[in-house]
Amino acid sequence: MSTTNNDFDALSLRVSTVFSPAAPINLQELFAGRMEQLNKIADVINQRGQHAIVFGERGVGKTSLANIITAIFRQGNFYTVKVNCDSSDNYESTWRKVFAQIKISKKDFSMVFGKNPQVELFDITEHYSILTPENIRQILITLSEQAALLIVLDEFDRINDQISKTMLADTIKTLSDESINVTLTLVGVADSVDELIDQHQSIERALVQIQMPRMSQSELNEIFDKGLPKLGMTIDDNAKNRISHLSQGLPHYTHLMGLHSARQALLEKTKNISLNHVKKAIEKSLSEAQESIQRGYHKAIMSPQRDNIFKEVLLACALAKSDNLGYFAPADVREPLRKIKNKSYEIASFARHLYDFCEAVRGPILQRTGKRRGFRYRFINPLMQPYVTMQGFATGLLSEDFLS
Question: Is the pLDDT score of 192 beyond 80?
Answer without folding.
Answer: no
